[in-house]
Each structure stands twice: as C-alpha cells, then as structure tokens.
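Quick note —
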Amino acid sequence: MNRERNTGRKAPPQRMRGYRIEARPREDPDLHKLAQVIIGLAMQRAKDEREAQKPGQSNAGPRPDGPVES
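Predicted structure written out below.
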C-alpha cells in the first residue's frame, strides 16, 4: 500500500481565484518585533547547541577535556 503523494501545487478554489495578494512595505518598520524574532532565533539556536553537547547522547560531539585517540 505505497501511495505517492501529489507534491505539485493545487489551484486555489474558484471563490478565491479573483483575489490578489499584495505586500506593501511599511514606512516605519517594527524594529521591536524584528528584534524579538532575532533574539528568539538566537535563543533557540543556543538551546539546540547546548542539548547537542550533553554527554551521554549519541549525537554529542567529542569533549574537549576527554582523552585523545591516536
């Protein structure tokens, strides 16, 4: 029972085919919101890196104070 999924784009429903999406730049950008997004991304990245470095996990990298193999 191996079905392939259609990954192509579907046409919008008939009721939406007349709509047009338009983006307009703001005169004054919301710098506070932008800062929140950037800080959130940085915090998530730091959290992911800390979790990847926890000892005892299979995906943890070598410890800098561990023995050196030769």
